[in-house]
Amino acid sequence: MRPSEDTRQQEIFCQFLSENGVQLSKETTERLYLYADLVVETKQFGNLISPKDSEKILSRHIADSLVPYIYIDERRKTKDERGECNETVHEFIAEPNSLGARRKDEGTKESLSSIVYQRSDLSSKTWADMGAGAGCPVFPLAIVMPEIQFYAVEPRNMRVQFMNYAKEKLQLQNLTVVGKRFETSGLSDLDFISCRALSTFENDWERAQPGLKKGGMFLTLKSFNNIVHLENDPAVHIYKYALPQEEQVYALVTRGNE
């Protein structure tokens, strides 16, 4: 069954978005479903996802890909509601029996990673995703944030071919596929660099940092167990969250380039 035809998966995915304060247009949601269909159904570029993960691509992979958007949008809404730049840090608390997560105020923290962005501020921003694979999280992010110019950086030829195919199908004008390793991509002075479960945080940060502009932000999605040692590192911000029907705790980890 295609993800766009799986009513239960759609319900779980939409509930996750709702519980985290995200409202997407029908057109945007349909494009996310179409991307999920392409990952699951397109076979000429190899097996892009395992059969087990295919059954939960919306609730696990697309939902996970949108966590950076939730992080940025949360801070935008905080600023809009209070009329000022507020540095309140929110945390997603894992609840194994719950879809999504609930937010909890954790106090204040002075960090480049806590910058509040208004959507109008994003129109001139650039964002590269290292080791993009089949396109998570960069394709979902490009769909929900059309005002940002995204670069999907991936050296494996079959994955590059698939992403170019998906880009054409989705008519994503704000995304460029770069068939190289990030270090040789020529990309620099970027506002955001992301990756998802690529390597250790330390290795990923070492690769990303030279490509960031001053004041730029690095974001990575990982299992919380793999980054727990960073909890007392003042240079990073950890945003814990849960995903639907997943028992483990996940973390969005950010670090600003000072």
Short account of what is shown:
With 258 residues, the protein is α/β, with parallel strands linked by helices. The protein has 8 helices and 9 strands.
What are the SSEs and their pairings?
Layout: H1 7-19, H2 26-41, H3 51-54, H4 57-65, H5 67-82, E1 88-93, E2 102-108, E3 126-130, H6 138-144, E4 149-153, H7 157-170, E5 175-178, E6 190-196, H8 201-208, E7 212-223, E8 236-241, E9 250-256
Parallel strand pairs: 3-4, 3-6, 4-5, 6-7
Antiparallel strand pairs: 1-2, 7-9, 8-9
Helix pairs in contact: 1-4, 2-6
The rounded Rg comes to: 17 Å
> SSE string, helix = H, strand = E?
HHHHHEEEHEHEEHEEE
Structural class, by secondary structure, is alpha/beta
Assembly level:
single chain
CATH architecture: 3-Layer(aba) Sandwich
Number of domains: 1
Give the CA-CA distance, first to last residue. Answer: 47 Å
Strand residue percentage: 15-25%
Shape: globular
Key attributes of the depicted protein:
Rossmann fold, globular, 9 strands, two-stranded antiparallel sheet, 7-stranded mixed beta sheet, alpha/beta, 34% helix, 258 residues
Q: How is this structure best described in words?
A:
The chain has 258 residues and is α/β, with parallel strands linked by helices. It has a single domain, classed as Vaccinia Virus protein VP39 (Rossmann fold). 34% of the residues lie in helices and 23% in strands. The chain contains eight helices and nine strands. Strand 3, helix 6 and strand 4 form a beta-alpha-beta unit. Helix 1 packs parallel to helix 4. About 15% of the residues have low confidence.
